[in-house]
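Structure ticket #2291
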Amino acid sequence: MSAADAAGRRRAKTTEAPPERAEPPGQPEGERPRDRPVGCGILLPDGGSCAEPVDREAPLNLCTRHLLEAHDWVAREVGVTDVLPAPCLACGSRIGVRYPSGWVCAECEWRVGEVPDDDLDRPRVEVVYYIRYRDQIKIGTSVNPRMRLASLPHDEVLAFERGGRAVEQRRHAQFAAHRFPGTEWFAVHHALLEHIAELAAGVDDPWREYERWVLRRTALSRS
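Resolution: structure written out below.
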């Protein structure tokens, strides 16, 4: 081989294009697998970032705890407590909460403008509810838990406890060490689960227990 031919072959090798990088099998072109969870985008008071993972289906880059805090904050700020335009058809209260979508009674949470139904003749039973959403538990109170819980994110109704705002506040104080600041949500822990287990002992369905309380109150009111 002549010196000219050898030099030509060397030049050809140096101008060859590098092989294309193959996509992972089954991976659409232009995409890369999500090989590790995305961290929460919240900055903590100490300047660090929240280290809790973000659920893959979350609408925002927030962990479950901060999504719940944001929900409670918006729900609190959007609603403004004021005097209802007219007494509530369900319970007669004059105090309501005004939302952009309309008024809701502050006592029984009946939506102003809805057509009354037969349940209006039934007495209201105030309860403290315990609901679970993933690894968080909310402790709240309502005289109309079906309507109230329909507006709250939750996976399971754990238990009901007879009582109103005073009982709710006692429970908030009792489990304050595990409460997420500014919310009614609590981290799952042994003491809270033990309390819920006591409430749920012998109760197959919390809603049936609540219905039994309502029927008993109805019978007493008619006696």
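Closing remark: The CA atoms of residues 86 and 179 lie 37 Å apart.
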